[in-house]
Amino acid sequence: MTQPSEWHRIYQDAYASDALALARDADGNYLLAGQAQARDGQATEAWLQELDPMGLTRLTETFSQPDRSRSVAAAWQVTGGDWLIAGTEGDRAFLMRLSPKLKPRWTQRYLPAAEMGAIAVHDACAVPGGSFLVGQQGGSAWCALVYADGRLSWAKTLPKTPGGSVFEGVTNTSAGYVALAGSRDGDFLRIGMSMQGHHEWEAQYGATGADAYYDVLETRDGCLLFAGETDDFGAKRTNHFVTKVDLSGQVQWEKVWGHDRDQDGLRAIAEGEDAYYLAGYQDAGGIIITCDPAGKLLRQQYVQPVGDQGSFVAQAILVDDPKHVVLAGRLSIHGETGSKAYGGRIRLQAKAGPAPQPLPPPEVVEPEVSLTRQGEVQLSFLAESKTRSFLPVHAQMTEGRYQLSKRDWEVGQRFQLTIEALPAPYLYVFSLDNRREVRVHYPRHEVTPLDSSSLPLILPHPDTALSLEVAGTDHIVLLFAEQPIENFAQVAASMARSRAPLYQSLRTQLGPRLVTPQAVRYEDAHTAFTAAMSPYTIVPLIIAVESSSH
Hints:
The protein is mainly beta. It has two domains: 7-347, Methylamine Dehydrogenase, Chain H (7 Propeller); 373-548, no CATH class. It contains two helices and 42 strands. A hairpin with a 5-residue loop joins strand 8 (92-98) and strand 9 (104-110). The N and C termini lie far apart (85 Å). The model is unreliable at 353-369 (pLDDT under 50).
């Protein structure tokens, strides 16, 4: 049977229904999921429908509790054709595994702590060895890592803030962490989070109005695309907002699209061969915005299933082929009570229609960085071997490293490091010589936290010294960290194998934990710095020592 170019259908024709999740199986069928309410005042039930390529229902299942509302926020297929669905049941989160026929195999529920308030799940995704759920609990953004059998590994919420926070979207990344999209205190919020719950990187910013991301996707070129809506960026009403960042969280581009007379917003992202497809709403209708990987607007297409007789919000999107996408969302019809769950296959316009005029670029309000932690190191050289007198060496900051004022040290010269100010409890020191050989100087054995009582700390030891072994340039690298660097030995070994510039090699090995340039200020003529230390920040201090063979 030939698949029609377009189809538009209403599912779960109840008092009120909503399509919140859309997925596709290996055979080209679709799974549509959401929530429905049989009549006013009744608890909502979670529902699933398997659709054939023409949008016709093959299977239907509903899951309800008499005293608890249920809804599905995300669905994806796993090994053997089974499905996982994640959502909310009353005040708790749930994860359910279903057979290919949509019959439950198991259900796991994740109860809220009594003092924290109810949990609401907004999205979920597969990660290696399990699943990652996100949403909100008691006004704060909530997330949880779950094992493959549904057992909870850990759950956490962000600290409470005056305006609250929420995670709306999540995606697994090829960098080994998940990317989270949401809002905090009315500002955009994006976070890269490790599988242990550590923040690899984080960004929050916005204008005076309410700004939020609702979805995030890793793109084929190894970046992350965030989509949502913004208020007060040069318009009187909300507009579409899209940000592309690399896997270290650095912004590649940002775009604002919309009309100042409309309420505009994006809810979902999909990627085709050479374009991104962004779905949401524009005033009373749905919208599909297409842009290329560089952020160039290619087309916008309105989707109004019932014309001017109702309104539509697209909440999920899949790319079917280069000419078609499938949408799911919420349809409201004038004169009818409640909403309808909608699914449709949409033929993309061959050419761009009247494009929304891009607004002036937003004034990005960078979060204020408070540089409050101080680090200070003194490098001293052995002036007289008989008296073991060590004298300080002057240094100058040049291109990201400290260069000693004396440039012609002899091979065999000995040095000591004195740590005079400690910005973080964990310290790691290694050197890299001209032959790319690495020597670890601290810690040698057990990693223990330091505090002010440890100062001044003389390295490698008050009775020993570092020694120049070969002619050329040696680099002494000090890493100050809030948390232990669990793979430090591996990092040091990898530095020896790398042929990239030193700082670039550090960035490659430590990833987003390495402090951003705006979060640290190095003194020009003294080996010291001030930095903003987050729980997972690592600040490097690099000293170059040049020697000759004579």
